[in-house]
Amino acid sequence: MPQTHPAEDRTASVTAAPGPPAELSLEERLAFINTAMSVRLDEAKVAYEVNTAHIDTEPVDLADVITGPIDSGPAPLPQLYPTPVAALLQRAHHRLLTGGWCKDVLVDEDGARCMLGAIRIEARGDSGLEANAAAVLLDAIRRQFGDDVDSVPSFNDAHGSAHVALRMLDQAAGLADARGL
Asked: Which residue, among 149, 145, 141, has the nearest Cα to 170 in the 3D structure?
């Protein structure tokens, strides 16, 4: 005889599927990310300690490593030219570069100098050396700007910035060195 099975009740209550999760607030998301990052940083710290455990290190004295700036003044002028006139022109160039350039006077109230004023102070009272340097500078200026230039002071005063004056002093130093002056 066939066995009968009691009828199964398939109409029993069905549990409802869970709805979409509630959206997290900004604070909850930040707390979750903070926790996740803390775990990752802890893992990285352990990995670093394991990977570097075999390296012998000595403690470092921070006084040997951390130093403050030292005020040593302007950089010293490199000795490029062995000849006296070329060296004088180089020092005059450096004087204008570090002390400032002016026009219409040999020295202004701030201590800046014109081209001839820089040559004069760097000649240190040697009028022959000063005259030779001014002559070479005038020659370098005339080579670049033509024979219409009357003098070093008039050339200096015709310009509005130190750029041309510095370039001409540098070129004159090279010319004096090439001439052996």
From this structure: 141
pLDDT of 74 higher than 70: no
Measure the CA–CA gap between 107 and 121, rounded to whole angstroms: 10
Cα 62 to Cα 64: distance, rounded to the nearest angstrom: 5
- What distance in Å separates the CA atoms of residue 133 and residue 135, rounded to the nearest whole number? 5
Residue range 111-118: average pLDDT? 92
Give this prediction's pTM.
Answer: 0.57
Instruction: Supply angle C-alpha 72, 65, 70, rounded to 5.
Output: 10
Among the listed residues 148, 168, 144, 146, the one whose alpha carbon sits nearest the alpha carbon of residue 156: 168
Concatenating the DSSP letter of every residue in the chain gives: -PPP-PPP-TTSPPPPPP-PPPPPPHHHHHHHHHHHHHHHHHHHHHHHHHHHTT-------HHHH--------SPPPP----SHHHHHHHHHHHHHHHH-B-SSSSB-TTS-B-HHHHHHHHHTT-HHHHHHHHHHHHHHHHHHH-TT---HHHHHHT-SSHHHHHHHHHHHHHHHHHHT-
